[in-house]
Design goal:
By secondary structure, this protein is of the alpha/beta class. It has 17 helices and eleven strands. Helix 1 runs parallel beside helix 12, helix 7 runs parallel beside helix 8 and helix 8 packs across helix 13.
């Protein structure tokens, strides 16, 4: 735990919280954009230690949560095919589709495997030339380099039986959609440190200036989060509109330039649907035409699958910071981690899962 424990030092965190309390004079609504930050905030009770004037709302920065239902259904259709070995990160296996999830497909005989890297999926494809191997390539900018690298490696090795089902989304367009909404309440942003480690934060100043909203690049430990909140609150109180880096040990303004170049070689920007939110223009990445041979959606002809969300689930409003998980009538009753209606309840980074796990509200017993 060396180099980590100091970022969980209660006295240091308390000192920053005391400073937040000292400088705060008005009510401010801040959004942490990342689901990992949401879980850290709730797990450590940071939101409960803040002065009452500071309200934290939860953003759409959980890749599992925002993967659209129809893409889950496409994954399920591909995974059920007898010639397919379907590979995925473990947190996708319990995300509900319309009628089932990937665990159900595996229980019914489908070859669904958990991998820790898309490069593992390429290795599986080389070991099983008689099978079609598909990797479920979801994620924000953080996971894009590894997914891109798998395509490049498969191409270089001449692996013809490998493809990816792409559901990559990008943070800045989602923030634009939130800030541009007439329902928007967000006055300051805590930016996702791991996304900025890859992409830098050069994309954010135009957003901050357009909507007059300060932002702070923020890490994931209690001290990081408290520092990000303090940085943002100081800017709000001073009337400054800036994008500041409160996570300098991991993030630079320009980010990882070789990784960005590699992403641009394989991916291009495209419109993308977000689960519970809808389509956001140019908010995703998809494969460039020259890499179409690796497009699982086309290879298995599942592009026409369309799905509808459960009318009980308000995940879209939660992901936009308009409501909290306990505002949902299904929370803890019809919707639990064992029987989720939406991905925000099952994902390890979902806001609903965080509220459920850490007991932020009393649950409604079904039938009472």
């Amino acid at each position: 735990m060396k180099y980590v424990t100091e970022y969980r030092d209660a006295k240091l965190v308390q000192g920053i919280l005391d400073e937040i309390r000292r400088v705060t004079t008005r009510h401010w609504v801040l959004m942490e954009i990342c689901g990992g930050q949401t879980h850290a905030i709730v797990r450590h009770g940071i939101d409960q230690l803040l002065p009452p004037e500071i309200e934290l709302v939860h953003g759409p920065g959980c890749t599992v949560c925002v993967t659209p239902l129809e893409l889950i259904d496409k994954a399920l259709a591909i995974a059920a095919r007898p010639e397919v070995i379907f590979t995925s990160y473990g947190d996708m296996l319990r995300v509900p589709g319309t009628n089932r999830d990937l665990f159900s497909v595996r229980a019914a005989g489908g070859d669904v495997r958990v991998v820790y890297s898309p490069l593992d999926a390429v290795k599986i494809a080389r070991q099983n030339p008689d099978k079609q191997v598909v990797f479920f390539a979801i994620g924000f900018e953080t996971t894009a380099p590894a997914n891109v690298m798998s395509v490049i490696q498969a191409q270089q090795l001449g692996v013809k039986n490998y493809s990816i089902l792409v559901s990559h989304v990008r943070v800045p367009p989602a923030m634009h959609a939130i800030l541009g909404s007439p329902q928007n309440r967000v006055q300051g942003f805590l930016l996702a440190g791991h996304v900025c480690a890859v992409m830098g934060y050069w994309e954010y100043p135009p957003l901050a200036n357009k909507y007059r909203v300060p932002m702070a690049v923020t890490g994931f430990e209690p001290l990081d989060i408290a520092q990000g909140i303090l940085t943002t609150v100081r800017a709000l109180e001073d009337g400054r509109v800036e994008v500041e880096n409160a996570y300098p040990r991991a993030v630079t303004f320009d980010g990882n330039q070789p990784a960005q170049k590699m992403i641009g070689t394989v991916f291009m920007e495209c419109d993308r649907k977000w689960r519970g939110i809808g389509a956001i223009p140019m908010s995703g990445w998809c494969l460039r035409p020259e890499f179409a041979a690796f497009n699982a959606e086309k290879r298995f002809d599942v592009g026409d699958i369309r799905s509808e969300e459960s009318p009980l689930c308000i995940a879209g409003q939660i992901l936009q910071g308009l409501k909290k998980p306990h505002d949902c009538s299904a929370f803890g009753g019809p919707c639990t981690p064992e029987h989720p209606l939406g991905a925000t309840m099952v994902s390890s980074e979902g806001a609903c899962a965080a509220y459920y796990k850490y007991g932020r509200v009393e649950f409604v017993t079904p039938g009472k």
